Amino acid sequence: MAVDITLLEHIAETPSCVDREQMGAFMHEYNRSSDKERLLSARQEQLGSIRSHARQCENWQWADQKRLREERGKSIFERLKQLGYEPDVKFAGRYVIRESRLSLFNTCKPLTDKLRTVYHSRRRSLVDAYNNYVHHPSPDTPSFELLPHVADVARFPPFRDIIRAPEEISVSDRLFEPAFAQLPEFVDEWRKKLDAEVAELVQIPPLLSLNDTSGQVTTSSSPTGSESSRAPTDKLRLACALFRRGSKGTFTHPNVFSTSMLDYKYPSIDDEDDTERTGSIWDRFGIEYAEAAPYVVYTCGLDPNVATVEDMERRNARLQCLSCQVWCSYSWREAVRPLISAWGDPFCMARWRPIDDDSEEMQKIRAAELAENRDASLRTSRCLLCRPRVGDEWQHNTTLSHLAQDHGIKREDIKRGVHYMTVAVWDYC
Question: Model pTM?
């Protein structure tokens, strides 16, 4: 009697380890057996019994491990309750804490009432003091293009030392004044590091060369764009130095850091790890370079290696997307965003046509833009009377309410460019 071919095919397809001696003994017994079918049936029954027993053992082991994990989890939460963390557990939820166990419990950190109450109170005082520093700047303090998030300020040594001060020292808003006096120095160092990291993101493909001989590219007319950048951070002044964060559009530096952080998980001010944050720009801020930007500048007829934002604004080009179902035009900034979604397609730039400056269609575009109420399309904006800070973009109506309530300006007197600046507008097409 031949061995069941279906059984052999099943055995061959199933990854397994075979003991050669046992296999040889079985084949010897099989070849000598007068009732091969009965032998195979007996062995299959024996194998089924072994597997059934193995499954019972696995289920028992899994149930036992589950019971031990639940008992350990209960003991951990009971310990947290004894240490005064019951309100925090109720706020976060046991599921979130359990899922974060690798970061919360694998690091040796003392869970004490001092850390929970005293440090928490001091960090809240810093939040209030820093908000006042940002929203009501003193005329005798320096101006800043960008201030750090409060979670980063709390990590600067002068502020961290105050938060960590002995428990008997009473901390108030005024106690942070010496630290705020040192803040400009720390902000300057923080900004230099940030600029250097952001500048490294700006990569211009070699094919978009400064020495283009095709006649398509025009050199920059601005003093800063007349030669290649000498310092690495000079790239941040180029028109192609555009950055994006999620779906919020493209922005120049440092304006991209002022965009809202509501959809990005910034570290909590109450984070016990108060060491300086490390990692990439993406890891720390959720910001990345818009790789399509150099190609858009090149398509508009300027050299992305030297063209600045001012050059592009003077050029004031418009591009037509040949892939759109309806005819529509984009400014150079607006053209970058739809290109991002199509990036990776080698022909994506071929679907964009620069509109002739002297054409009739360009004249119609200019007339329509003059008649358009762009201010009504504002999506988000930032108060110009406050110091700019990471993540301080607001919905435009919120900005108007802030100017009226915190700065005492009547709504009818609020002016764009004087009291607020645009961060993002609704897309047009």
Answer: 0.62
